[in-house]
Amino acid sequence: MRDSLRISIITAVSIFLTLFIGRLLGINSLFYAGIAAAVVSQTCYKEVFRLGIKRVYGTIVGAGMGILFYNHLPQSITSFAVGIFIIVYICSEILKAPANMACIVFLAISTNLDNISSEFYAIHRVLDTSLGVISALVVAFVFRTLEDKIKGTQ
């Protein structure tokens, strides 16, 4: 099977599973779960787990920094830029992970929470991202297993 077809199928099924489970669980914002499933699914089988774990770590870093900055530092463009600098450095240098989701979660928490606690929001972003990553892992594993069985019977 061509890689583009394989990735298309895995991505679509991963997002479907993420959204389906998210609706069953009553998750209000499936956006972050869907993003995580889409990004993690867009890689080869061997990378899905590694990338998925790094995505969750990055989300935790962004959420933690968002809570810290939202609750303890002035809401200013300068403090947001300092937060982004720290997050990108931690993700790049220490975690060796992409910082994009960490930056998005940080900005969502530190710049625009209305009547929601930063801790509540952060926990839900980590759970949403984890749901997307787990869905992508399951779909990639099942797809790989089925593909190996089909190849073995030919």
From TrEMBL:
Subcellular location: Membrane
Membrane topology, as annotated: Multi-pass membrane protein
TM region positions: 7-35, 55-73, 80-109, 129-146
Keyword Membrane attached: yes
Annotated GO CC locations: membrane
Main location: membrane
InterPro entries: Memb_transporter_dom
Domain Integral membrane bound transporter span(s) in chain numbering: 18-139
Keyword vocabulary terms for this entry: Membrane, Transmembrane, Transmembrane helix
UniProt entry tagged with the keyword Oxidoreductase: no
Protein name from the UniProt record: Integral membrane bound transporter domain-containing protein
Species annotation: Propionigenium maris DSM 9537
